[in-house]
């Protein structure tokens, strides 16, 4: 075992801790996302209600506006959730100076070990490990629903262009084959979602698996380091 | 001054020893500068180290690394290789 191997191990530890931070960042983002979506929904529906109250008797067609409003709110919520979770994935700062420190070899490794807040690391690893499934479900569900809307609209549009039989782009969803059509679209959505995120899901499960051992490794190293300090 | 309650930072300790290994014996002010420490902080570390026989300070104020000091540094490096090197973490 040489110092190069040690440096490689420390860089692996950094990568694992960055993954943990990335998961924690996204978890911390969830309440904010919820608050923004709730605020936008309440404000939009409030404005719509006021408009309807003031102008509803004059412009009767305003009553049909609720469909695009609700649709817009749903699409906004989905896009905003996926966008914010992707943005929160990036790690800023926390372990970025490790590469520079490691150029010093053994001294750099000691500098890193001294600078680590072990209790904080343990807390963050535990939090990431226990709450990651929730994050995964929310992200995949939001992305799948977003894809579903895109697939449905694309299908309706193509169908309207190619087989404009009834002059109604939505007739495939109301005709006798609608169950069959919806099943195909759901399957297509699932396939698209998995194609887009399969690599991430696999890595995620690897991460979940490794988080447990990482926790034990960190605890063990900390214990040995405390012994060395005394 | 007793250093009983003083808990040294291992990184700082190793840096002082490494500076002495690279440059040989040094004046305290030069050592403080070379290892990037304030004079007061270096003095605290030197007191602690000389009490444990890791360095000696002669009458002219020159700090010299002892065999024990060099051995302590080697032990630190060996500890790093042994423990950090054996961390079981997935390949990047």
List keywords for this structure.
heterodimer, A: 230 residues, mainly alpha, 7 helices, 0% strand, B: 92 residues, Arc Repressor Mutant, subunit A, three-stranded antiparallel sheet, 4 helices, 3 strands, 57% helix
Describe this entry's structure for a reader.
The complex is a heterodimer of chains A (230) and B (92). By secondary structure, chain A is mainly α. Chain A has helices at 3-55, 66-87, 98-102, 106-115, 118-162, 171-174, 178-229. Chain A has one domain (3-229). Chain A contains seven helices and no strands. In chain A, α1 (3-55) runs antiparallel to α2, α1 (3-55) packs across α5 and α2 (66-87) packs across α5. Chain B has a domain at 22-84: Arc Repressor Mutant, subunit A. In chain B, β2 (55-57) and β3 form a beta hairpin. Chains A and B meet through α1, α4 and α7 of A and α1 and α4 of B.
Number of structural domains of chain A: 1
- N-to-C CA distance of chain A: 25 Å
**CATH fold-level name of one domain in chain B:** Arc Repressor Mutant, subunit A
Structural class of chain B: mainly alpha
The largest pleated sheet of chain A is described as: none
Number of strands of chain B: 3
| Class computed from helices, strands and strand pairing of chain A | mainly alpha
Secondary structure layout plus pairing:
The complex is a heterodimer of chains A (230) and B (92).
Chain A: H1 3-55, H2 66-87, H3 98-102, H4 106-115, H5 118-162, H6 171-174, H7 178-229
Chain B: H1 10-23, E1 26-27, H2 28-34, H3 39-51, E2 55-57, E3 62-65, H4 67-84
Helix pairs in contact in B: 1-4
Summarize the model shown.
With 230 residues, chain A is an all-alpha fold.
């Amino acid at each position: 075992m040489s110092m190069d191997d040690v440096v490689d191990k420390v860089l692996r530890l950094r990568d694992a801790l960055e993954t943990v931070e990335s998961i924690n960042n996204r978890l911390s983002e969830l309440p904010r996302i919820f608050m923004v979506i709730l605020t936008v929904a309440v404000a939009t529906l409030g404005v719509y209600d006021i408009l309807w109250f003031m102008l509803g008797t004059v412009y009767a067609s305003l009553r049909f506006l609720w469909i695009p409003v609700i649709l817009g709110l749903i699409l906004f919520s989905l896009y905003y959730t996926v966008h914010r979770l992707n943005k929160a994935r990036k790690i800023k700062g926390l372990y970025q100076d490790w590469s520079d420190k490691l150029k010093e070899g053994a001294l750099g490794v000691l500098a890193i070990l001294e600078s680590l807040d072990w209790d904080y690391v343990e807390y963050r690893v535990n939090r990431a490990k226990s709450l990651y499934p929730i994050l995964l479900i929310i992200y995949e569900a939001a992305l799948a629903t977003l894809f579903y809307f895109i697939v449905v609209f694309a299908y309706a549009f193509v169908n309207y262009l190619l087989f404009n039989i009834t002059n109604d782009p939505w007739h495939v969803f109301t005709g006798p084959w609608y169950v069959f059509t919806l099943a195909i679209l759901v399957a297509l959505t699932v396939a698209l979602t998995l194609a887009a995120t399969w690599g991430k899901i696999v890595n995620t499960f690897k991460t979940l698996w490794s988080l447990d051992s990482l926790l034990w490794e960190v605890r063990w190293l900390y214990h040995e380091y405390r012994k060395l300090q005394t | 001054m007793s250093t009983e309650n003083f808990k040294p930072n291992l990184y700082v300790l190793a840096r002082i020893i490494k500076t002495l290994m690279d440059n040989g014996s040094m004046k305290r002010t030069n050592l403080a500068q070379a290892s990037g420490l304030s004079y007061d902080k270096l003095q605290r570390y030197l007191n602690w180290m000389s009490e444990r026989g890791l360095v000696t300070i002669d009458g002219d104020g020159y700090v010299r690394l002892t065999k024990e000091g060099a051995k302590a540094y080697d032990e630190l490096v060996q500890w790093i290789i042994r423990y950090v090197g054996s961390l079981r973490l997935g390949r990047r």
